[in-house]
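=== RUN LOG ===
request id: a7f3
mode: sequence -> structure
chains: 1
length: 373
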Amino acid sequence: MSQVRGLVEADPIVMIEIAGAIAEDETRWPPESVTEVAVEHAARLADADKDRLRAAIEMMLMGRDVDVALEWLHVTQILPVLFPELAATVNLTQETGRQHKDVWAHTKQVVRQTVSRPLVRWAALLHDIGKVPTRTFTDEGVHFHGHAEVGARMFDRVSQRFGFARDERHTIRFLVRHHLRTNQYSEQWTDSAVRRFHREMAAHMRDLLDLSRADITSKRPGRRKTLLEQISALSDRVERLVEADAKLPPLPSGVGTAIMDAFEIAPSRLIGDLKRALEKAIDSGELEARREDAYYVAYIARQDLVPHVDPEKRDAIIAAGGDVNAPDDLEGPNRGVDPEDPSPGVLSCGHDPENDPCVHRDADPDDPDLHRH
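=== RESULT ===
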């Protein structure tokens, strides 16, 4: 006991190393006397070296029994010192009448289930902190409107306590903000919607899918199996489209002729310039690949890329091609709550699907395991 006290007094990060030992093997839960020392010195961690503190926490997060170690941080009152946002999730109910199913218990389980990659585990630890300020109650149940976006903004303050590099901060924040994105996938998504999802997730795709798998904590085997299959289906479909897209040119073969016919222009260098402009717009994500000719011709007219076009002809070309900017395959519940982010995200009523009475109007409201966190 005196030896532990001396170590902690000399270096408070020793307390996180004790938690790391618990995470390696839950049977290493220390005696009460050691826990009392940690309670006594917990506040000193607020002034610990940021880089060393982050490294020690990360070692703990990578442990097999990390959920037990996190509970020890709660018992020792270290949690509110380092993560007051997490401490606020203790006993924060997610479903009316189910006190045991609080956000803290869910978070510990998600971290334990997450793949052993440090940044994904950090994101798992913090993915639901936005539920604290967003929780509301209605006759339909508990709501957490926009908690993913709020949690991402809250992470900015959390990150200041630890020695994260800029790219690490970006990755964790991205995963927290988008951890619900896979929830909305269904077979009804068009190929364009899947391509857009893949484009927006970019380098974080694998991490996001793995975090989504870990975020399934339903105890119903059938429900768990269904949700895992949904994520796998999205992953497989993305891979198929990426493979197919790599084999095909981005523009349909007849788009050059369509441009000449629509604008009544002869073959010239301009046609090549227009096609290159279309390819550049596809590369940037402004346009989708391999759409119908009228879609690309309308874009050219909308951007006034062909000079001296009669206004009535221009309007007719645009009308024939439709609205190239309308995300028509992501309307309704697939749109995010952020008005500037039309991508699929949090449901329109603000819930994640584990606890969301508005996910389906015809769903059975009495099914306690209808949704997932």
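=== NOTES ===
Residues 295 and 322 are 7 Å apart (CA to CA).
The radius of gyration is 26 Å.
=== END ===
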